[in-house]
Amino acid sequence: YLYPQETKYGLFAVKTSLDDITRFVLIKDSVETILHTPGRYFNSNVSVNDKYIVWEESIPDKRWQKRNYSVIKLFELEKRKERMLTRKSRYFFPVLSPDSRRIACIEITEQNIFSLVVISIEEGSIENDISFIKEEQIQALTWLSNEELAILTLKNNIKLLKKIDLSTKTVEELFNSGTINIKQPVNANNFVLFTR
Question: What is the chain's percent helix, strand, coil content, to nearest 5?
Answer without folding.
Answer: 0, 60, 40
